[in-house]
Task: inverse folding
């Protein structure tokens, strides 16, 4: 047996969890599976949230009580171009990750922008969802493969940002 | 010292697994109920929460809890990565400064998503014992064994704690395990980690609790009989369990002394003892080994419902509820955190 002291050893650690999306996010994900995006409207302040976090209106601290259908088109409110590879990445760099304010929603979703050079992405750019083909859609954000430019004229981004800020 | 009281309390029923609702969805109605009951929503100047990201398995999961409380316009808020009882302590300290008159405190957690005994092993000890991968139940079993070997308790004593707790829990609508089962029945169960049987261990629970604290006039505006916090203190023991005498709880004794627990008789004591033998150790540390007129855990305690990160706050809430209802004049509440009662908090509450 070696008498050398052990300075370093590797300890494998793994914890597994069953994730509970919750009522609101389950509804959001099940709608994605059907090719539709729904938001939650707060009846007190009227804000529409999308992504189905807690189903709460975080401003009012109460559950949203109305489900509203949303467009799969929206406006880029901010973005970043990813140039650094990381473990587990599934797409080639550079790529663009953006906050997209869907028409009818009051908070943006985060998604990829593709089918255009990263350098062309800009705040105010109009984009639309590219859905996975029917049969490959599940209750997952992967069901929206990415967003791509619609070719529409840019939205008035200053107005949109002001509306989000003042909201 | 400024007079600060618990003026309202709400909790969710504890369940083994909330299948549909996530943490925030469990928490939201509980916070709403506690705030509504307090009748002083507009005077709440601080919010403090207790939760544990390891339970959810998501970094910064606690931030999400803020969606339950309507943090707009921006509020003054803080968080502790432990039981909500310590969040209450932080809020109490802030109330002592005199700048605010009321505070909201909440604790919440779902223990069901992961393997709780393994999650807790990593949560509080990522260094010393991790190579051994010792889980929380095995740690508690080592402590129970030490207690038995020291001749300080018997398995019969432990079984009686379990039987009494589950029996008393029949009066608690939020309890997860409530039943009339004799100590002899419990002693016939197989060991799950000798000398612990299933009934010696708290259930795995999902749940949440919220408390509103208020000072002076604000407390009197909220309720006719506030549960005044006459003393509150918490102490911690060494991280490494090998250097502790696991059969005693000096940190509980010191916290109780600082909180003035022994100054008068205690009508009700709500102790956070997730394992039967731990109640025996705590009672010894608190001078309640022979509860002379003190009702121990009338709610059934953690053995009836143990939502992690809320169960300690629930002890304070249960004790306060008995003061507010007039059933008790002086109550002691205890919370614990860490393996084998490593850290302990004691609060003494009184009516007027």
Result:
């Amino acid at each position: 047996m070696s008498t050398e002291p052990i300075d370093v050893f590797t300890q494998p650690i793994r914890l597994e969890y069953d994730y509970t999306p919750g009522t609101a996010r389950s509804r959001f994900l099940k709608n994605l599976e059907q090719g539709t995006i729904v938001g939650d409207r707060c009846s007190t302040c009227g804000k529409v949230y999308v992504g189905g976090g807690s189903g709460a209106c975080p401003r009012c601290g109460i559950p949203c009580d109305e489900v509203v259908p949303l467009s799969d088109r929206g406006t880029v409110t901010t973005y970043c171009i990813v140039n650094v590879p990381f473990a587990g990445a599934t797409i080639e760099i550079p790529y663009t990750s953006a906050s997209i304010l869907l028409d009818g929603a009051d908070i943006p979703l985060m998604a990829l922008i593709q089918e255009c050079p990263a350098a062309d992405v800009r705040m105010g750019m109009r984009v639309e969802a590219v859905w996975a083909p029917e049969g490959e859609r599940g209750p997952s954000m992967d069901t929206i493969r990415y967003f791509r430019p619609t070719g529409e004229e840019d939205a008035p981004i200053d107005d949109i940002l002001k509306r989000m800020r003042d909201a | 010292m400024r007079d600060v009281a618990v003026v309202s309390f709400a909790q969710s029923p504890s369940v083994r697994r909330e299948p549909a609702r996530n943490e925030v969805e469990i928490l939201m109605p509980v916070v709403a109920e506690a705030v509504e009951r307090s009748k002083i929503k507009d005077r709440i100047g601080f919010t403090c929460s207790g939760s544990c990201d390891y339970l959810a398995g998501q970094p910064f999961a606690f931030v999400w809890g803020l969606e339950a409380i309507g943090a707009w316009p921006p509020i003054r808020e803080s968080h502790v990565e432990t039981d909500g009882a310590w969040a209450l302590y932080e809020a109490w300290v802030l109330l002592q400064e005199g700048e605010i008159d009321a505070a909201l405190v909440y604790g919440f957690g779902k223990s069901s998503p992961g393997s709780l005994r393994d999650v807790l092993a990593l949560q509080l000890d990522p260094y010393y014992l991790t190579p051994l991968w010792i889980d929380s139940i095995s740690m508690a079993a080592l402590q129970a064994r030490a207690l038995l070997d020291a001749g300080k308790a018997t398995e019969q004593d432990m079984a009686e704690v379990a039987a009494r707790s589950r029996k008393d829990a029949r009066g608690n609508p939020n309890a997860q395990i409530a039943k009339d089962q004799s100590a002899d029945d419990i002693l016939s169960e197989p060991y799950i980690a000798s000398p612990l049987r299933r009934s010696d261990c708290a259930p795995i629970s999902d749940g949440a609790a919220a408390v509103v604290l208020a000072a002076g006039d604000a407390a009197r505006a909220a309720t006719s009989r506030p549960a005044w916090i006459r003393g509150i203190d918490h102490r911690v023991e060494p991280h490494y369990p090998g250097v502790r005498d696991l059969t005693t709880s000096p940190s509980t004794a010191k916290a109780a002394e600082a909180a003035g627990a022994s100054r008068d008789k205690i009508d009700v004591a709500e102790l956070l003892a997730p394992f039967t033998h731990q109640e025996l150790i705590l009672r010894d540390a608190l001078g309640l080994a022979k509860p002379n007129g003190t009702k121990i855990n009338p709610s059934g305690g953690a053995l009836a419902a143990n939502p992690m990160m809320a169960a300690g706050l629930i002890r304070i809430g249960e004790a306060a509820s008995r003061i507010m209802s007039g059933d008790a004049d002086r109550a002691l509440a205890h919370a614990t955190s860490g393996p084998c009662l490593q850290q302990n908090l004691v609060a003494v509450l009184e009516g007027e």
